Amino acid sequence: MLILGIESSCDETAAAVVADGERILSNVVASQVLTHEKYGGVVPELASREHLRKINLVVGEALARAQIRLEAVDGLAVTEGPGLIGSLLVGLVYGKALALSLGKPLVGVNHLEGHIHAVLLENKRARAVGTTAEEAKLPAVTLVVSGGHTSLFRVEAEDHDDRTTFRYQPLGRTRDDAAGEAFDKVAKLLALGYPGGPVIDQLSSFGDPKAVDFGRIKMKGNPFDFSFSGLKTAVLYRVRGTNLAAEAEARRAWRKTVSGRVTAEELRAHCSPATLDLVASFQRAVVVDLVARSMAAAENAGVATILVSGGVACNSLLRARFNEAARAHAMGVFFPSLELSTDNAAMIAAAGYYKLAAGERAGIPLTGHASFPLGS
Ligand code: KG4
Ligand code: ZN
């Protein structure tokens, strides 16, 4: 069963062809990072316009790389929400029009469900071709951690004769900023560039993660909820009115003189040891919190598997700390490849495959939802 996946919920226009929910025939992502970087964040109206310009090309490229014609597609899966409404609508309207004109079935997919399937799809494939002996056994606790989301779910699969269905139980979520958003805002404050996560990840290896003690993030109520705005403000207080602020302004001025992207090495040369220590300490505080709450949620849910996905799952310290914690607690922890950690359409096609195989169909009323909770 060949599924064409389409994703346009934020700032990546993406299309992919996936066979049987596990074999990626193509995975095309057109990033809008150059459009948004000068604003230090995604500008919704510009994102919608970029999706409109790119969607036809990206879908065409996905079919070409998969070496199939449009008519060979068995079904379509399109991101329904959550996301920027104008951006979502571009993919949805395009997908609906294609499905109608081809007479092929269509389903809407929750973006968070897509991120979870990024891990499952690759794990299933790796086992099928024998590159891993380990299986991500469900039920699991899954952390979806990106620029828009920081949420924990319990996920389980139910196998029927001819189909598999998935159930998601929300365990906790961020009450303010998403973890990736905190990385992006701290990077913006320090004039380190956009998106902030990859830059802070690289610069942190040159700083001392214990230089600044931010303490543990405290939460009242649900211990599996997150909050990163206090930490972001703590960073702001350490910068405002100090040499670090003047240094950030000098960096901002320098960046304006450089055309194109700057390398991590160039950036590092424009950062004092105190700035490097600050970003390394900030990253450590975020990672310690994400790992601790996820491990506690997994133990509380009585599962032996943790799945971690979303853009922040690319973070090298997060991967290392999760692996250490999982070993210490005899749990299995699974990440997607870096390519499938950030937004892509292969994960949407994989999640959509199970829905289509179970007979789910969306029609004309399918529309976008800026806020779109997953599970119950
Ligand atoms: O999943 P994604 O592509 O889009 C959303 O659904 O938000 O995630 C993008 C986010 C950005 O906030 C970016 O700064 C963060 O993921 N990110 C990282 C890293 N790579 C991307 N954060 C920390 N460390 C990284 N290496
Ligand atoms: Zn995402």
Describe the structure.
- The chain is an alpha/beta fold and 376 residues long.
- The chain folds into 2 domains: 2-133 and 342-357, ATPase, nucleotide binding domain (Nucleotidyltransferase, domain 5, 2-Layer Sandwich); 179-303, Nucleotidyltransferase, domain 5 (2-Layer Sandwich).
- It has helices at 33-36, 44-66, 85-102, 111-128, 179-189, 196-204, 229-239, 243-257, 264-269, 273-301, 316-328, 338-341, 346-357, and strands spanning 2-7, 12-19, 23-31, 75-81, 106-110, 140-145, 150-159, 164-173, 305-309, 332-334.
- It has a 5-stranded mixed sheet with strand order 3-2-1-4-5, with helices on both faces. Strands 8-7-6-9-10 form a 5-stranded mixed sheet, with helices on both faces.
- The protein is globular, with a radius of gyration of 21 Å.
- The chain starts with a strand and ends in a 19-residue tail after the last helix.
- 48% of the residues are buried.
- The model has no long low-confidence stretch (mean pLDDT 96).
- The site of zinc ion has 5 residues, from helix 4.
- Zinc ion is lined by residues 111, 115, 146, 310, 343.
**Percent of residues in helices:** 40-55%
The unique ligands bound to this protein are: 5'-O-[(R)-(carboxyoxy)(hydroxy)phosphoryl]adenosine, zinc ion
CATH topology of the largest domain: Nucleotidyltransferase, domain 5
What's the pLDDT, averaged over the residues? 96
Distance between the termini: 29 Å
- Main sheet: which strands, in order across? 3-2-1-4-5
Please identify, by name, the CATH architecture of the largest domain.
2-Layer Sandwich
Number of domains: 2
Structural class: alpha/beta
Shape: globular
Beta-strand portion reads 15-25%
Q: Output the helix-strand order.
A: EEEHHEHEHEEEHHHHHHEHEHH
CATH level 1 class label of the largest domain: Alpha Beta
Let me know the CATH homologous superfamily of the largest domain: ATPase, nucleotide binding domain
Largest sheet: 5 strands, mixed
Rg, alpha carbons: 21 Å
Please give the count of helices. Answer: 13
Poorly predicted regions: none
